[in-house]
Amino acid sequence: MEKVDPWGSEAIDDYQGLFEDFGIEPFEKFRKHFQDNRYVRRGIIFGHRDFDRIFKSMNEKKPFAMMTGLMPSGKFHFGHKMVADQIIWYQSLGAEIFVCAADVESWLMRDVTFEQARDIAINEYLANYVALGLNPKKIKFWFQSDYRNEYYRLRDKASKRVTFNEMKAIYGELTPGKIVSVLAQIADILHPQLPEFGGPRPVVVPVGADQDPHLRLTRDAASRLNAEREMGGRDFECVPPSSTYHKFMRGLQGGKMSSSDPKSYIALSESPKDAVNKIMSAKTGGRATVDEQREKGGVPEDCTIYDLFLYHLVDDDKELEKIYMGCKKGGRICGECKANCSDMVSKFLHEHQKRLEKAKGIVKGFSKS
Q1: 38 within domain boundaries
Q2: What is the rounded distance in angstroms from the CA atom of residue 15 to the CA atom of residue 137?
Q3: How many CA atoms lie within 13 A of 325 on its CB side?
Q4: The domain containing residue 22 runs over which residues?
Q5: Which residue from 180, 276, 329, 331 lies 20 to 30 Å from 48 (Cα-Cα)?
Q6: pTM tops 0.85
């Protein structure tokens, strides 16, 4: 069975096994409907729970929301950009957007101070979201440590609707900090359906597969919280949250991309020169020698440079196929791909960082949630 740990550093190797082990459903049936989305089109968004509800709301022009969280603990990099692109996409489709800065979790799990977390959340994450195209006037943004009473009441209610043994079965070894983080996550995901925030409606949470434990527990808690006569005598009726799951980009040296390892990622605030240096030393799927690669071909599936093309840099599928087949047949060598990737990343960073400076001025007002 694949190990899924929302706080761990292990990479997920068997995405297919997640369908059998945890009941995640393939996203394949929705692919033809969302050909405008690169991550859907290329199978990077590979699974879901109850996305049918979201799809129905889209088709019937009915209200739905998208909720996501950010962990303010380091630089915003290309791995994070994948979630930002999905937020922006859902906003374009009419979803009400809820974005949580998990400053309590970053303090409990990563020893990031609340002051540091606030600065990172605003100037790294939110500013990059806006620079990438998010409309900041149409989002609900909050810090876990500084929000509304209704949210905290829901967190406290959730504590009565899950058991220690249940949490242990899902997460394994527990600490008080993990328990608090899990209960906060339940409130983060479900509170958009409280009467004060818009009421019951489908909510989708786009996550990496490592976050599925939070979604499974939240869905169970939702079923137990429904129709209880608490909180001022009103029922809390909610729709169990939907979720989508995306594959991870590998770190530039192979393995999992991590904010704690600067060699594993390219930050969107990084100088193009530094980014190119990282690209030139990145792990590829090439052979030991040029002659061997010409003869046997490379392995793009093992190449972190190809990952950058696949996830972010090459939107044209025919162009991507040309790169892939050129590598497989030995017509392209790693130096050529690294040079192309360096040019694309440098151009992207140059243009993005112009927008980023403007975005930092726009998001200043979010420092007080």
Answers
A1: yes
A2: 36
A3: 6
A4: 15-250
A5: 180
A6: yes
Which amino acid, residue 269? S
Question: Do 184 and 37 have their domain in common?
Answer: yes
Segment 18-73, tens digit of pLDDT: 556 667 899 999 999 999 999 999 999 999 999 999 999 999 999 999 999 999 98
Q: 229: alpha, beta or left, given left = phi > 0 and alpha = psi -120 to 50?
A: beta
- What lies within 8 Å, CB to CB, of 321 at 6+ separation is none
Is there a domain that residue 9 lies in? no
Tokens found for residue 201: 């409606």
- Beta strands, E only, 211-360: 229-230, 234-235, 242-246
Structure confidence at residue 172 (pLDDT):
85
Beta-carbon contacts of residue 275 (< 8 Å; ≥ 6 apart): 266, 342, 345, 346, 349
Residue 203: which H helix or E strand, with range? strand 203-208
End-to-end CA distance of the chain: 41
